[in-house]
Amino acid sequence: MRTLITGGVKSGKSSFALRLAEEFAQPRYFLATAEAFDDEMKARIAKHREERAGRFTTIEEPLEIAAALKENMILDCLPLWLNNMFHYGRESSLDETTDSLIAKLPGNIVLVTNEIGMGFIPADPLSRRYGDALGRLNARIATACDRVILMVAGQPLLIKNESNLALGDTIDKITLGDTKIALDDADRFKAERL
Hints:
The protein has helices spanning 13-21, 39-52, 65-68, 78-87, 94-103, 125-144; strands spanning 2-7, 29-32, 57-60, 73-76, 109-112, 147-152, 155-160, 170-171, 173-176, 179-182, 189-190. The protein is α/β, with parallel strands linked by helices. It folds into two domains: 2-163, Rossmann fold; 165-194, no CATH class.
């Protein structure tokens, strides 16, 4: 199953990804996108390596993640990969690179991302471009995944599963508890690709 885990910083995304991926058959892989540009990041990377020691084969790839994909893998994380794409001047190839990533997604993978667009609008143009790009990336990856989980305060919330809408499907009623609400034409929602 293809699973996207999203949420805020330190919400438990990586730990939950490890728990989910324990269900994968061996060999299991961990695709790490982070580069250690400072001591704090080096410490974070070392802590994450310890958490998965002996359970996963680690592949470190900051840019060419589509080529590094394998079955039974965790990809952690999309925001740092996107940061690397910006840092190395590859922002203009994001659409094409994302297309390749989605086309090569294996059947069993857990992808980790951050939900950063739920607060204020950044003051500078680069941060706004990055936030917009991550929002689009997350939406495209979520569409390609079977399941999407939002982590809030260490708690997983299921946002999407295999029975959710497919592209082009239309909602004409909503069920809230045991109440079904019919929607008129103005309220109808159609799932579309972003």
